[in-house]
Task: inverse folding
């Protein structure tokens, strides 16, 4: 009987994923502006106009890493490279900065862009800064300032992991989502050890990424029904199997996960 309900749960998760694919047109549209390196803290105009400053190769490597991660994330739709190239061509033709700035913003508005993402790196201060801005008024929504300790001899490749970790934290805050637990792959009747979750490359999951498992508990407090979400386990991604599925090892809380499933409680994955 338990295998029957497990099979039903798996089918429901598949239908949920297919439904999300059909809603791809509702993805939030993001444009990545030119990353900046060195010099003083840049303004919004600096991201739109002119060169990226010193250490442009570092900026380019980090910007490309961020764009690749956004392209693979199901929550957002990254503006196409060809559209940015058209903007660059117009920049070469026009020399008036006010005109160029307005033209650039207008082009992204036509494409329905909702958010801009900017990036700034200062090797002298040993910090990285990522900022999501609202496209309508350029107001910052979420900002991540990350410090690195690699010293002046570090290179952009060594900072990729730091930038991508910060990016995922920002996306989780901006687009919170619940990833379902599909089924237990290994374990005993009382303790789950390996699980399959409905999140993969489309959610930006990667090997060895740390996640958490949560469940919703319903409580009756003197006749007042309340529900609250509690963390019950810590897991690590063992293998990202596809766009939509990952295999995870439970590091702690295996008994709590199995108990929640046996009780029919909603169990989902929290992205840290």
Result:
């Amino acid at each position: 009987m338990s295998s029957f309900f497990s099979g039903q749960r798996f089918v429901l998760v598949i239908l949920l994923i297919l439904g999300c694919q059909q809603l791809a047109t509702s993805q939030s549209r993001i444009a990545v502006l030119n990353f900046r390196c060195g010099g003083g803290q840049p303004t919004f105009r600096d991201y739109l106009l002119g060169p990226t400053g010193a250490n442009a190769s570092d900026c380019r490597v980090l910007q490309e890493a961020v764009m690749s991660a956004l392209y693979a994330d199901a929550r957002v739709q990254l503006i196409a490279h060809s559209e940015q190239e058209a903007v660059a061509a117009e920049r070469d033709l026009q020399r008036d900065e006010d005109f160029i700035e307005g033209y650039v913003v207008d082009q992204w508005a036509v494409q329905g862009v909702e958010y801009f993402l900017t990036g700034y790196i200062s090797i002298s201060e040993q910090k990285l800064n990522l900022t999501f801005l609202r496209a309508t008024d350029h107001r910052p929504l979420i900002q991540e300032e990350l410090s690195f300790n690699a010293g002046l001899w570090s290179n952009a490749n060594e900072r990729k992991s730091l930038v991508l970790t910060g990016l995922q934290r920002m996306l989780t805050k901006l687009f919170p989502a619940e990833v379902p637990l599909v089924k237990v792959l290994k374990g005993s009747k009382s303790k789950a050890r390996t699980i399959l979750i409905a999140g993969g490359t489309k959610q930006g999951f990667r090997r060895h990424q740390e996640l958490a498992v949560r469940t919703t508990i319903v409580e009756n407090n003197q006749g007042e029904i309340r529900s609250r979400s509690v963390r019950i386990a810590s897991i690590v991604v063992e293998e990202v199997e596809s766009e939509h599925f990952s295999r995870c090892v439970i590091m702690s809380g295996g008994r709590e996960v199995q108990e929640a499933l046996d009780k029919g409680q909603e169990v989902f994955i929290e992205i840290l």
Summary: The chain has seven helices and twelve strands. The two ends are 34 Å apart (CA to CA). Residues 1-5, 13-25, 49-54 have pLDDT under 50 and may be disordered. Residues 2-22 form the longest helix (21 residues).
